[in-house]
Write a structure and sequence with these properties.
By secondary structure, this protein is α/β, with parallel strands linked by helices. The chain contains 15 helices and 15 strands. The chain has a single domain, classed as TIM Barrel, CATH 3.20.20. The chain is globular and about 60 Å long. Bound molecules: beta-D-fucopyranose.
């Protein structure tokens, strides 16, 4: 039987741009996502986060729902453009929203877990080059300093960045995310400045000496499998592992980029002259935990002509509505690999895991999302297996508390355990929320 210890944290997650709305209220500045959504053809259906789930106004009701489910921790993110709508200009009203949110969580005995950057870079920063301009490290530093000063003691869990791979590769390489550039050399520059900003934020955090708070980073990681046993496919898998996992894990935990990838990247994209030797000391500042976002695995084969001569191939298992293959056992493999190669005894949190499904409201008014329950169950089982085998996994956050703005997919993908009717903003607990309530109450999975 699967039974989690009392100190295992059950949470749910959201992110500012995906749920808040109120995009032009209380002095909020524009973000790169506001801009990106307004560009033709970038986001499905022309959707924007202008209103989203209106969490900015409805946070009390949403927290009441969390309380009803018994959720112990809420991972939300802080919108930088609310705090600094213009370069160097602090906005108290923007910060006050997070004070209210955190207060309400604490009153309800829900642990606030704050992500400092979940992709909504202020537009003013992008106008100055965004993550390509090394000065971003200072802009971000000014922002985090203010955040720690005002909110530091109330938040026990801080996450510097969410998925820097996505911010850099999807934002500057493939162009699927804001700001929509398509240049892989730029993507690597952006990744480097993100990593530097992370390390700098950890250092600033330590200066505050907040005894009851911890800090870490959240990476999106996956196991990469070769399609066949051929040497070509194995090399392909090692390249994609380098590109999506090791390029971020190595500098943080080992203080250097992986040699094989430095060679490969510089042979394709030219000199990586944005890297300075002294940077690694900053990037590898000791963190208190690692956050892992896990959804699926990757299977690859060699394919000449593709980027890095590698192609992603479809796996045989069932897929979610994102087309992502359901592969719970590779969550176990991933966590085990992380422990062996990187984190050792360091606590790990699964800061996101969940499934998009085509949820519909049944005639009885409920949403019978059995497939989501199955998905969550399978992954929690693997998380438990990791713990039983000596893994230091401390918590699990379902993505997401509620349906929300799924980036380039707009509102077409539903990840929530709470259903959101975007026309009325009515919330309905899906069956998965009721199931999660029981898991949290009993700490067991039947
Ligand atoms: C992750 C993001 C999160 C959400 C999920 C589905 O990459 O961190 O905001 O979009 O995917």
């Amino acid at each position: 039987m699967v039974e989690f210890d009392n100190d295992f944290l059950f949470g749910t997650a959201t992110a500012s741009y995906q749920v808040e709305g109120a995009y032009n209220e209380d002095g909020r500045g524009m973000s790169i996502w506001d801009t990106f959504c307004r560009k033709n053809g970038k986001v499905f259906n022309g959707d924007t986060g202008d209103v989203a789930c209106d969490h900015y106004h409805r946070y009390k009701d949403d927290i009441a729902l969390m309380k009803k489910i018994g959720i112990k921790a809420y991972r939300f993110s802080i919108a930088w453009p609310r705090i600094f709508p213009e370069k160097g200009k602090f906005n108290q009203m923007g910060l006050d929203f997070y004070k209210r949110l955190i207060d309400e969580l604490l009153i309800n005995n829900i642990i606030p877990c704050a992500t400092i950057y979940h992709w909504d870079l202020p537009q003013w920063a992008d106008d100055l080059g965004g993550w390509l301009n090394r000065d971003v490290v200072h802009w971000y530093g000014e922002y985090v300093e203010k955040i720690f000063k005002e909110l530091g003691t109330y938040v026990p869990m801080w996450i510097t960045l969410n998925e820097p791979w996505c911010s850099s590769i999807l934002g500057y390489g493939t162009g699927d995310h804001a700001p929509g550039h398509k240049n892989f050399g730029e993507a690597l520059t952006a990744a480097h400045h993100l990593l530097l900003s992370h390390g700098n934020a950890v250092r600033i955090f330590r200066d505050f000496n907040l005894k009851d708070s911890k800090i870490g980073i959240t990476l999106n990681l996956n196991e990469v499998y070769p399609e066949t046993d051929s040497l070509d496919d194995k090399i392909a898998a090692s390249i994609i592992d380098g590109y999506s996992n090791r390029w971020f894990l190595d500098p943080i935990f080992k203080g250097s980029y992986p040699d094989d990838m430095v060679k490969l990247f510089s042979s394709i994209f030219g000199s990586l002259d944005f890297i300075r030797n002294e940077d690694f000391n900053d990037i590898s500042q000791k963190v208190d935990f690692l956050g892992v976002n896990y959804y699926t695995r990757a299977i690859v084969r060699k394919c000449v002509g593709e980027l890095f001569n590698v192609k992603y191939v479809d796996g045989p298992n069932k897929k979610t509505d994102m087309g992502w293959e359901i592969s719970p056992e590779s969550l176990y493999n991933l966590l085990t690999r992380l422990k062996n190669e990187y984190t050792k005894e360091l606590p790990i949190y699964i800061t996101e895991n969940g499934a998009a499904l085509k949820d519909i409201i049944s005639d009885d008014g409920h949403i019978h999302d059995d497939e989501r329950i199955e998905y969550l169950k399978l992954h929690l089982n693997e998380a438990y297996r990791f713990i039983k085998n000596g893994g230091n996994l401390k918590g699990y956050f379902v993505w997401s508390l509620m349906d929300n703005f799924e980036w380039a997919y707009g509102y077409s993908k539903r990840f929530g355990i709470i259903y959101v009717d975007y026309k009325t903003q009515k919330r309905i607990l899906k069956d998965s929320a009721i199931w999660y309530k029981d898991v949290i109450a009993t700490r067991r999975i039947e």
